[in-house]
Amino acid sequence: MAGGSEPGGVRVQRVRIGRILGWANFALVLAGSAQAEATRFVAPECRAGSTRQDALTGVGERGELILASGSRAILGGIRWPVEEDGAARAWLLRQRDRPLELVPRGEADRWGRVQVDASVLDEAVDLAGGLIAEGLAYVDAGERDTLCRPALLSLETEARGAARGLWRTGVREGREGGALREATGRFIVAQGRVVNVGERSARTYVDFAKRGEDGLTVTVSKRTWRQLRERGLSAATLRGRLVRVRGVVESWRGPTLDIASADMIEVLDEERALRR
């Protein structure tokens, strides 16, 4: 080949390969940008830390995971059933000494425990998901503003529909004030139709019973109410809607729940509400 030239077919092939590599690199850049964009909009308290391996050696108070490494953790997205936790404890202990993959989320809590997603390594056993699916724990954002694993709500819906575990007695009725007061200090899930919404400067009050009647009132902080409004909800769109709420019952002129996370208010006929 004179002057180091190459056949035309080879040149065409190299150009094609170059174009393919160029498009591949472009696709990788786009994928990287999309991943960075997705990460940017994940709530800081939900951002995943470095995955590590450990093993469960025991279960402490309120479902605390005692790990072989000596560290302590709690499962994210669940509420441990304090008053009737025997079945939940037994289910977790069946996973004892098995290798776990742990994904920490956010900072450690006031007791030094890290909130984690935990699954049995190389097996389709997710600890939080398994407890929820069996009806052995409730979905709860806890002290966080965001429920980091909203898909747990779907698992809970299935367990509730099948009346598994904690759901044998169903969901509490928001109009039954007497029964709700008996649960003071306990975590509950309740639902009913909203009869009134009172917006105040510091808090919003969502009532499940008319004035003078005995029923549940949900108090919503100013910050959480703003988040609900950003989702398209308002006093007008909530009135008359079927709503499910969850939290610890307090007694203040009647049974009250304080909601800190917008994810803990589910509008069950949401589509109709948002069209109004």
Which key phrases capture this entry?
globular, 8-stranded mixed sheet, 276 residues, 5-stranded mixed barrel, disordered N terminus, alpha+beta, 30% helix, single chain
Describe the structure.
This protein has 276 residues and is an alpha+beta fold. Helix content is 30%, strand content 26%. The chain is built from 8 helices and 15 strands. The protein has helices at 8-40, 86-93, 127-133, 152-161, 177-181, 222-230, 235-238, 270-275, and strands at residues 52-59, 65-67, 72-75, 78-79, 99-104, 114-120, 138-139, 172-173, 187-193, 196-199, 203-207, 217-221, 242-251, 255-259, 265-267. Strands 8, 9, 10, 11, 12, 13, 14 and 15 form an 8-stranded mixed β-sheet that branches. The protein has a 5-stranded mixed β-barrel with strand order 1-2-3-6-5. It has a two-stranded antiparallel sheet with strand order 4-7. α3 (127-133) runs parallel beside α4 (152-161). The N and C termini lie far apart (77 Å). 31% of the residues are buried. Residues 1-6, 9-40 and 271-276 have low confidence and may be disordered.
